[in-house]
Design brief:
By secondary structure, this protein is of the alpha+beta class. Helix content is 16%, strand content 32%. A hairpin with a 2-residue loop joins β4 and β5. The model has no long low-confidence stretch (mean pLDDT 94).
Length: 75
């Protein structure tokens, strides 16, 4: 199982704050993001696996924790 945590405004957008998913191995962030549950997620979302920022082609394995976050701005 892969645990997906959703932060900030993406919680309302996707309708959940935590979900567990399973995909055939080898899985990738691209496979996860292609899942219908995540279709509303904007393309500019920040992605992290096990608390490390990753790109969309990152590999996923059973037990990983994925975080989906909106871009951060400041000033």
């Amino acid at each position: 199982m892969i645990t997906v945590l959703v932060f900030a405004r993406y919680r309302a957008l996707l309708g959940f704050e935590r979900i567990e998913v399973s995909y055939p191995q080898p899985a990738s962030m691209e496979v996860l993001l292609a899942d219908a549950q995540f279709e509303a997620l904007p393309k500019n979302a920040l992605l992290a696996v096990n608390q490390t920022f990753v790109k969309r082609d990152a590999k996923l394995k059973d037990g990983d924790e994925v975080a989906l976050m909106p871009p951060v701005s400041g000033g």
